[in-house]
Amino acid sequence: MMSNDLCEELILDIFSRLPTKSLLRFRSVSKSLYACIGIPDFIRLHALRSPEKIMLIHNIPEGKESWRNTYTLHLEDQFPYNINNGITTPVAYHFGHFSIPGSCNGIVFLYENGKTINLRNPSIRRKVNVHYPPSWGDNFAVFEFGFGFDRVIDDYKILRITTPTSFIYTLKTHTWREIASPTTPFSHVNSYQCLFSESLHCTVKGSFNVFMWFFSTIDLPVPSWEATAVTIIKDSLAVFSSEPEHENSWIWLMRDYSNPASWSVAFKLELTMSHFEHADRVFQLTANDDLLLYLLYDRISVYNPQTQVKSRLVDLDDSSQIVHFIKCTESLGLLGMGTSC
Fold it and tell me: Which of 178, 200, 203, 258 qualifies as a cystine partner to 211, CB 3.0-4.6 A?
């Protein structure tokens, strides 16, 4: 196919549906393709059209006290089947001892306590190191980190809530700036965050908070109940909550994000909240089957609220262990930035 045979708009439309590996090769075809594939508008379009996948991160022992990290990418319809089915090939990737607070548009946010912060795109193997703000050590962390994309300024931001001041980092400027911390103190902040309607959400004991460029609170469906996780189900904000001294729990959906009174029950779970109290990640997998995937005690389980059936994912082999999972889109984010990894 020659570029003279098709208009540029159609060529870019076709290219926006290709995997990142192909696009990286095509950048060497011509100067015009190199330039077009690297422009922000094309990168955003490609990310929107890329299928969302689940990245499973595996630890594979290599001796008594060492291991190597690998990851596998899975389409949502591959669950809850055995992931070791030949559909995917493990990819060696050094995540080290990082924790992963979140990801956005294919960019994974990694943090190693007191040492390193960086943003990585495993699809194109690029990373950007993030420096610490100068007054970091003088503040007490309430909410360790949040990560998201601000469409208004077309930039990625990192949020850290501390007292007496908090901080926001912007990728374009590579700078931190201080912002006012929430006026109402809170405790027992759930480390799991949910990016919805361009704001970060997480559960706080007794309330449900919205973070990002501002701080506010959303009333829970039943204030006396305990909410332990927040996620997105059927394109709506959802919380997992349980009635005090009862073993059953419920999933509530906020049907209208602008109306806190629009909470309604989506599912009654035959699982106690203890299944989710220590879960690092809980979210819907497919809109059709309403499957939930959660990590509990280093094991990933898949739960179907309709059938009440719970199954555990089988890892790559008997010695490997799934230690983390995130939703991750293949994208060209960080292209032309940072360094190769």
Answer: 200
